[in-house]
Amino acid sequence: MKKIMKKIQLVFLAFLFFPLVSLADPFDDIMAAMKLGQTSGITKFFSSNVELTLLENEGIYSKQQSEQMLKNFFSQHPPKNVNVQHKGSSAQGAKYAIIIYEAVNGKFRTYIFMKDNGNGLQVNEFRIERE
Questions:
Q1: What is the mean pLDDT of the chain?
Q2: In principle, which of 40, 81, 127, 129 could form an S-S bond with 53, CB 3.0–4.6 Å?
Q3: Can you give the pTM of this predicted structure?
């Protein structure tokens, strides 16, 4: 009887927890990765090709190229603090966020645009500009 009750409790807890998982905001994960300067935590949300702007460099790059470019940016501008300035979404399901990235050597405005490309929400545009 105790084993059956434990299984029922586990199933009940799983149903309670499952909706919370689906409500996870990818911007929270991206911000956490930015705070650590961890590029893989950011680029895991990138589509296969991303419109990337890093200061003066602008173009459409592959996920791998983008990761290397972000790695270089974070090595030149190590993180100090990260704050959301604004988040929003469109009626078509696209999402965007404006994040202030504070590095040890300056502040930067980060713009992230995500939309569903058939594989869930993915970053299509990622910009970092001087504040």
A1: 86
A2: 127
A3: 0.79
